[in-house]
Amino acid sequence: MLIAIAIIFTFIISSAMIRWAGANPFAAFKYLLGSPLQSKFGITEAILSATPLVLTGGAVALAFRAGYWNIGAEGQLLAGAICATFVGLHADGIPHWLGIILMVIAGALGGMLWAFVPALLRSRLGIDEVVTTLLLNPVALLVVTGLLNGPWRNPETKFPETQVLSENVFFPRVYPGSRIHLGLIIGIVALAICWWVVGRTAGGLKMRAVGLAPGAARIAGLKVERTLFTTALASGAIAGIAGAGEVAGVAHQLTDGISPGFGYTGVVVATLAALSFPAVLLISFVLGIINVGSFSASRALSIPSTIGEVVQAVLLTTVVSALVFMKYRIVLDKGKHRD
Amino acid sequence: MSTADAVTGYSVAASAVSLNGLRKMYGDVVAVANVDLEVRAGEIHALLGENGAGKTTLMRLLYGLAKPDAGSISIDGAPVSITSPKIARAAGIGMVTQHFSLVKTMTVTENLALQDAGFFSLDLAGARRKLLTLCEEIGLEIDPDARIDSLPVAMQQRVEILKALAGGCKVLILDEPTAVLGPQDVDSLLDVIRRLRDTIGLSVILITHKMHEISQVADRVSVLRRGEIVATENASGMSIASLTALMVEGVQQEIIETGERSSQGTSVLAIKDLTVHLRGHDVISELSLEVRRGEIVGIAGVSGNGQSELVQALSGVFVHQTGEIHVDGKLVKGGSPSAFAEAGFGRLGEDRHASAVSALTVEENLILDRLHFFSKPGILLKRKIRKFAEESITNFAIKAKPDQAIGTLSGGNMQKVLLARLFGERPLAAVVSQPTRGLDVVSTRYVRQLLMVERNTGVGILLVSEDLDEILELSDRILVIFKGKIIGEVARKDFDRIAIGAMMAGV
Predict the structure, then answer these.
(1) For the domain with range A27-326, which CATH number is right: 2.20.25, 1.10.3470, 1.10.4050, 2.40.50?
(2) Where are the transmembrane segments (chain A) (predicted)?
């Protein structure tokens, strides 16, 4: 119910902004939500656009379930992309299957590496991970730019981007006639594993207990810090695989635009999904539609294509507000007493 | 004039509040069924009943926090429709719950002034005058300029009462007021309640579980059972036994054999020279004690003498903690809760809500401290867990389903789940803190019997409780704690309430 109200508010607020940008809001929403679904191309592009979100959304949802507020999926994704690129640049002469496996492992390792320091600081010294994970995001981007302007600069074009990686590491397309790649399958499998681990294993129960009531978990003898540390690394690994997927499945090289904020959008996805893994899949697809639709809206109505991001941001704000209202109730108390 | 005469004197007075045929349903559940209750002017009327008997709902109806489905309320003989707390207060009804509504960073005077404050007006001088007059009338002492957070809980409670009185209250509802107090403060609160009646003729509705409070202060007592008033009697004529009988009649209760007091066994818990340094001083200093197999050792003391810290130290949570803790003769190293669990030591914390993960289910909470036993390899064994949960529910008479969130359980049932978790693990020794605080009579009796049974199977139990009766009933030995030190030991044959009370006071 509250979510429905949040969505209505999203429409109202976004409409005002679209109006402001000089377009008819109804037409804009028709393009944003409708146009990608009208063609096979639109649908497959929306799925492609959803692929990294499945992984970053899953990564964030996993961490949040344990009460570890990982806002650093963006940096972890970039670190994963860097490590995967390294593999891709040195993969001549290895079999394709091995190349793919190495890419996934490299992505996961990169993400874990980037998640390691905040996880350690949190579990050893109690330093707030929201700040550390968030602040490491631009650092990861700086490392990417540094590499692209230095050792990895394309020797032929001299552009700040790597040369095209070895074909031995490309993720295969999984649907003929589209750009949908192996990353989607990996994402869905990762979500399924997360869902199973959280719901059906001892480790998952620990995570949930730690996330819901760390004090009670500690009294029950659970190692709260260790659980947080492990979860943080797992979350980083999943986000890192998203980076590997973008490199190996879409761009086939590393550029400084490899992620237009997939990691941040992962926070949006996880929150909108209320930390449910099946819902992460659904929400990723919806946001994928908006991403693709924003381009057609932009072309047809000559408004900025960032309108898609605006709608997503407004959606996040309203849904988070709705979640607050689910937990708390505003009481108009005409008297002065409070209970 | 004896108390009994005083009672008769007041009992002829007119009715202050009368509830006529009051009824309240929540869904299909009848919370309050056709209740008739009369509270006379200037009487202390105790309302007794188990958890869930409808006491709180009844008072919520009277205070305008819930709307009755049927029935009416009269105040001073005139029918009123109480639809909000504001109307209730205007009609002269005040309520003090266990959760105070004071602004902690403000002074006593400011808190009182706040309730009459308009948007632009704040009459501090008037509030102060009112406060001092009230205090003088009743014979209370309170510093009008003390900040609330600098006052102990008992004092804050007094401020809350004074606030209600300053607001013009003629009938004061006290919802389990002694649940938040230590034993010493209970007596002074009861004294205050008596004085409120005797000096300003206040009517008090006292909601309580504790029988001795009724015999100490109440003029009349009404017993609620399953939403109905089953008796209203003069308190002086009622024995604890007859009240209990009224309260629990027809409520099913299995009796557990407590068995003989066993002989001394080997030491299962030994604390040596424990010192806990906190807030600039030693809250526990060089404390040593021993619990043997199959005995209950009670820690008696006025609250705030280091009991809470002792319990917490037994999971090694303090940074500034020195001394040794041995379980079954082996030194517990590392001092984390898990280290104690691995050594075979269990713990029931004083706050059950802090010990249970309320959003998780009963069965998940039950296995939380023994996950390795219920998973293989790392995968939860659903069937084994369900079987264990169902056994625990049967063995411990828990009223819940295995897959129900524990947060939805009543206090007594939640406590039983935690006890099932503690003793399901077959610990060698355990510390049990305030095991029956806030529980109704039936649950209390059950929990106490359970502790006896566990003791008889050989568990060494360290019992920490603010309820001296509980300690006297259960313990084989009593250790008296005072200012963080054990200052005396009493064997069961020498138990003497008065002597132990004197030791607790440090005499």
Answers:
(1) 1.10.3470
(2) 47-64, 71-91, 97-121, 133-152, 180-198, 262-290, 310-328
